[in-house]
Design brief:
single chain, mainly alpha, flat
């Protein structure tokens, strides 16, 4: 009986250590900025527009629903593009100010 218990512990403890051990530092990837988030969101909206057009052409979406969803996605894309432009302009101004300063 003690041999089985020792063998079980011998196998269980390393497995638990492997599963639950956290190293001192974790790499979580690059920090996400508002600009990177907006660029990702823009790509998602564009993909949704492509999918919507495909579904409409396949006859799966009625005309009035298609128009409403397309308008909504286009409005969201326009808002995102405007904010991206604003953030990029602000970043360019900051770089120019640092270069002069």
């Amino acid at each position: 009986m003690s041999f089985e218990l020792a063998l079980g512990l011998l196998l269980t403890l390393p497995a638990l250590f492997y599963i639950f051990y956290l190293p001192g530092k974790l790499y979580l990837g690059p920090a996400k900025t508002r600009l990177s988030y907006l660029r990702e969101r823009k790509e998602a909206v564009y993909e949704n527009l492509r999918d919507l057009n495909f579904e409409y052409r396949a006859g799966k979406v009625p005309d009035n629903d298609y128009q409403q969803m397309r308008t909504s996605l286009q409005d969201e894309a326009a808002t995102i593009l405007a904010e991206i432009s604003r953030l990029e302009a602000r970043a360019a101004e900051a770089r120019a100010t640092r270069a002069r300063g």
